[in-house]
Amino acid sequence: MNQVITKETQCLGSLDRIPVGEGRQFRIGDTTIAVFRSREGNVYATQAECPHRQGRLADGLNGGTTLVCPLHGWKFNMATGEALLGDCAIKTYRAWTDDAGDIWVEL
Amino acid sequence: MKQKLVVVGNGMAGARTVEEILARDGAAQFDITMFGDEPYGNYNRILLSNVLNGTQDPRDIFLNPLEWYSEHGIELRAGQRVASIDRANKTVTAADSSQLSYDKLIIATGSRPFIPPMQGLKGEDGEDKPGVFAFRTLDDCHKIAGYAVKCRRAAVIGGGLLGLEAARGLLNYGVEVHVVHLAGHLMEAQLDAEAGAILRRTMERMGVHIHLEKATTDVLGEEGVTGLQFKDGETLDCDMVVISTGIKPNVEIARECGLTVERAVVVDDQMRSVDDNDVYVVGECAQHDGRVYGLVAPLWEQGQALADHITGKNPHAAYRGSKIATKLKVMGVELASMGLVNPAKDTDEVVRFAEPNRGIYKKLIIRDGILHGAILLGDTSKAAHLMQCFDRSTPLPEERVSLLFDIGAPTVGSTMIEMPESTQVCNCNGVSKGAIRKCIEGGKRSLRSVCEATRAGMGCGSCKPLVQEIVEWVCEGQVEEDPSIHYYVPGVPMSKPDLIATIREHGLRSVSSVFRQLAGGVEDPGSKMGLASLLKTIWGAEYDDERDSRFINDRVHANIQKDGTFSVVPRIYGGVTTPDDLRKIADVADKYAVPMVKITGGQRIDLLGVNKEDLPSMWRDLGMPSGHAYAKSFRTCKTCVGSEFCRFGVGDSTALGIAIERRFQGLESPGKMKLATAGCPRNCSEATVKDLGAIAVEGGKWEIYVGGGAGAHVRKGDLMCVVESQDEVIQYMGRFMQYYRENGKYLERTYGFVERIGIERIREIVLDNGELGHRLDTAIQAAVESYQDPWQESEVPATASQFVSTLPMVTA
User: Fold this and answer.
1) Closest Cβ opposite residue B800 in set A12, A17, A75
2) Is B771 exposed, middle or buried (0-12, 13-18, 19+ CB in 10 A)?
3) Does B804 touch chain A (CB under 8 A)?
4) pLDDT category, B569, cuts 50, 70, 90?
5) Which of A5, B173, B395, B771 is the most core-located residue (most Cβ within 10 A)?
């Protein structure tokens, strides 16, 4: 690995663990986050629950950078956290894949 | 030091006004003394007729019993009449010569019956002739009732409201009742001639005899009443007579102390005599702006203004007159009347409906688009709305008929104007009309943008037509055309037929390829589910199933719940189960500690609160196929027991329902399809309000209904056809499903689809036994053959971590 591992940076394992176009949750210490693998090959990380009614965002549909909560359809930009439909933004985390195809996230 | 307030009169006006004063903390300002003629507390005079007819006990009509006065520190001098008022010295003198000084005086002496001039009211001894009664007080009631039982025939002089009430009361004492009225029709203050005639017929049917245009000149009889003599020379035999010919304000005492009296005591807007700022007048003895009111509602309004002013609560309080609208029952007949009875100007518009046989009459008088008068007789269902329009002078809708009847939906404009701002339009997300209007005025001018900005219509969607109406109404025709409403899905700019043709032409078998080829490579998550459903319909087994295009429910074949858990509904064909299956379900519920086991509306069993991780092993343990209770697809076929057990059944609805469900289970469709079969026209399984329904009718036939629904939208299905066998039911239902699959918009339920296409057109296609029908048969057969039970994925997951919510952390 050629990444400098800081205290806040975590490896989540291979990109293949997440089916293409879908999201999964990860629990890092006390924090649960949602990580998405887009069809374009990008990864995004956000807070796990929707600010509206705590829907599990990892179960939501996504496309481009748009994420839709599975419970009531609130929409967010996965890259910035901006609310696209609904009145509250979400927290996002920097996420990327390395040359080996592993997912990294900075908390 | 408190002021002394003296109230002359303890009727409804006097007592109510004192109540209003007390409510404004008047007891702290005033020592109150009330004088009343009658030796009672205060009672509701309007209910006297109920006492007369025996439906109410006199005790029940008291508004304020004697204790009320003492509890509130009011000195009540019941049964004491005030003889005179000395305004210069500010004192009143009672009939027993006692004097009382006042700082403020309220005159609420009310009125008494007006007795028209006629001979023979009194006997030779100068006393009232036995059998002659007025109808005004509680004592009158007792006397009338006591006398009526001895009589054979009673006459009531006066065909106004109170007279008719007296007539009704008298009927109960077994006397023959005759109403004698001076005017050409009954209740001329509230009704026009035609309504009066209808009321007359209704009353005659109840056994009341009506004599119109009769002026009584004499009450005949020496010892007691024997009859009436009329001006036209005719006579009427009777044993008693009740006189109810209107009221006469009690103004003598006011006139004697020098106050201006016309028809009643003249007052200003603060309800004070125009001559004396310390003397207030309220109720039937007051004349405000030329008018004297004999009803309760104006009296309440006067009392409030008076109390506001006298207590200083609102020094600018003013009474501006009342609009008279009454809703009452005359002898059990509903009646509402307001404002003008007849048009007063040539340009007044009159809208009228009459159905004399049923005693129904409705009439509106409209001036410059504003309601100036209305009569509703026999049916007052629209009275509340009309009274509101009348009271507020609201502009009326162009289509007047909607004011008289509930025919279909009211017109858009009128609905919108009438709808209060606070009305909740979207009941899922709690969005008011006002919020939607503000959003539109803030620049959103299409249905979609308004829905997205306000969240209205984003729940069940049933309010979207209403939101659309509000958009059109606020924009006044400046609605932005939203081209996406014509698209099958918002992210691909094509109508459904164009999209299907293009997908076929390019051989696009996956959702991502559609985005790539037809949407410039832009993936719209809101379009994925619709495209997935369509591609499956087009390609069947050849569809390239990308799981990320599915909603979570379709990824894990279960219905997501509010807490992120899922529900498991195994298929129970036609709602017919076995002890073995029930045992399996019970065992699974135990093993996985399922928090709730519920019978569904579709005759199945729902296991709720299941973790995603447990889904595949539960399915394995159940060994039953998926009930598809989560998908936009064929759901269930509800059945009744039909001919097998039911003694009324004419067709085997359970066998048919099971066959339908086995054939079409899991079939993808634009919206969910809920079905039912019924074994006889009693329709216990409610097949007429299902997406598709079949009802057995005598002769081995089945009726097929399509486009029914009873959820967010209620619609009775249209009868598509009647067929001779169960096989034909399955065939024609299959054709309809396929036609709907190919032509329905995504999420458009059959009730919307059938209305949009029209049942005639649907019949032309589905019932065609040539090429059209044959093609549908072939297509649906292919779809049925491509069915696979999704719960088989418990053995072979479709993706890595298909049923995992939280992936474990990797260890270095």
Assistant:
1) A17
2) exposed
3) yes
4) very high
5) B173
